[in-house]
Model the fold of this input.
Amino acid sequence: MQVGKRIYLKREMPDLKVVKSFAKLPASNVADCMERSNAMNPRIQLMSNPDQEMCGPAFTVHTRAGDNLAIYAALKYCHPGDVVVINDEGDDTRAVIGEVMMTWLRDQRHVAGVVVDGPMRDIDSLQNWKLPIYATGTTPGEPYKEGPGEVNVPVACGNISVYPGDIILGDPDGVISIPRKGAAELLPKAQAFHKKDDAKAAAFSKGTADLAWVDDALKDKGFNVIDDIYRP
Done:
């Protein structure tokens, strides 16, 4: 989708009770309940030092590569609890956000986090922040402030689609996007999966896990189990 010059002030929002409930779950468990299809590419990494998971509705920004004028618009219009999700069109030569803008987002807008599919800067300070910040890396390169850019439109971030108001969940593993439509129906499945996964981890720790299914799966997939050493 070509970047234009539109700033939408309104979004369809998720149920905030649902958002708060997802904030108690690991991103991996929720991703497993979405057919493993809504995780952002691992190039987007946690850059700060939060003490809790990132979870909130997506406030999306599509900016021209290496330009941050539309991100400044987001500084004006985003809301407390939002996760600002930025599509930088794959640019890796210019940082589109740094400590000054992040300070405003943290102290004035009280956002839940920032996700940039592109580089940031001022890592010497931001790496110690409790605000969850995700980006592809760092560079001192300065951005343009010319536009175009769009706010609260569908964006691509980390190779997945994110719509305004989708629930963005992030932890040390990375970031996932939970589509707003269907989030309430997904929640009890993810909660049950998390409970089951905790029980599984306990069984593996105690050595009581049943791995009998592995032999059946290997046989079904055509593996050969050879009781000998490899010889060229």
Remarks:
- The chain has a mean pLDDT of 96.
- Residues 4 and 18 are 32 Å apart (CA to CA).
- The longest strand covers residues 54-63.
- The first helix runs from residue 16 to 22.
